[in-house]
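--- STAGE predict ---
source: upstream dedup step, 1 unique chain passed
mode: sequence only
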Amino acid sequence: MNVFDPRRATLDLVLQEQALRAGEKTFVTYLADDSRITYRALDDRTARIASGMLAAGLAPRSHVAVLMNNCPEQLLALWGIGRAGMVAVAVNTAAKGELLGYFLGHSDSVALVVEEALLARFADILAACPRIRHVFIVRVARTPASADPAASAAALAAAGVAVHEFAELLDATAREPAQPPRYSDLSMLMYTSGTTGRSKAIMFTHAHLVYWGSEVARQQDYVADDVAYVFLPIFHGNALLSATLPALIAGASIALAPRFSMRSFWSDVRRSGATIFNGLGPVANYLWDAAPSPDDRNHCVNRCHLVPVPEFAAAFQERFGVRITSAFGLTDYCRGTSYDSRCSPEKLGSAGLPIPGVDVRIVDGDDIEASAGAQGEIVLRNNHPWGASLGYYKDPEATLQSRRNLWFHTGDRGSFDGDGYLWYADRIKDSIRRRGENISAFEVEAVIRAHPAVLEAAVFPVSAEDSEDEVAVAIVLQTGADFSPRQLIEHCSANLAHFMVPRYIDFAQSLPMTPSQKVEKYKLRQRAEENLTVLWDREREGIQVRR
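--- STAGE serialize ---
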């Protein structure tokens, strides 16, 4: 699909066409067990899954949540759901308790595809998810679950939930659905970090998914001989939209790892023959900080996509023999700029030039375009039909606010140089980025405030060793309350994803407030970073948070 035609941009057409073109070529190699799926098998299995789900009684346009870590079955589920004309809901596997219940409830999911090791998490919150009437259990070789999956399955069945084996879907007879999906149909919901409220669900049409993959394939020069090493979680936008889909569109292959592991990173790259990988956040730091080795260039990688671009980018390229690419964009809307082979090497470190068909501006607080070289908010406008997301699911107010004055407001600050290159500065939004994960301060605060001992809580980022954020919280307790840091960690661990649990805790008498009674978080951050040793530190105390 060299020229993007939205009218032919559906997952089923892409999979069918690529099966005809690539046939027995391997699309995905799962590095955990070296299992492989060809393009022809990918087309066949996703078609069977679509037919099997419809035969199980799920209706077109139903919302089906997928709670799985990286594995081929996860891709088959996401794309099989889309081929059935249903909506796949990608769920972060770190979610549990109240947060998992929110994702499943807010998304209106009526079914769940879940790997066996995570089944107990759903069983624990079953009462909070009355809409879910079907569960498909995926048997994946993982670390044994902490709870007995058989007992969880029995509990679900006793509650009237239809429990299926995911493998049974692959035995279904592939049939063309009575209502094949159209390019403009909703295909996927993906949750992003909340900034002024709960995490929002981004709405992707079939056409937008295909457009995103097509654009990245073009920008990053994907060819059929490429092998993308995918180690970031597929339930996030980067791995799915900016690595897996571009490989699919280009007729290339992916080498899929269960997760990022510094220990196995380069050995995975070498044995898979990977030619490209994407790295977020501290990944570049981890690779750079490892001791130099004669094998640093002993691989087939010729380019890597890094966001953000590290200060040592030029030396990184020289050491590892790769070319760094980068970009600016948001899963919430679309990609806006790209630093790629068409850009000047002297601009390494920038986010590149605007993508054809996408307008990019820098505006001030009144949405007036800023003068040349001035910093301001980065705003985007995609001029391609179906080239951007539909907005936020069940949140028209946030959708309209983000698109005010006909521009998508990113909440990020940057500037253009005299040659038209975008240089990213920082975030305006009240969110935290830790270990490649976006964290909503609002969501962490909501969980902490729910504890009866807490009167007020303010969550904010502090600079960490790996040049990213750590989560800190300032807490005001109820009068006479007895609440220890360990109790807070236990409370957060039970109700939040592991990466959201605060590391630093500051028990305060009061929080600094503006005249309009908004917490001045910059003061909390400044005070904390001036002397982190006075704060209670979870890592210093040796407390490990379970995933």
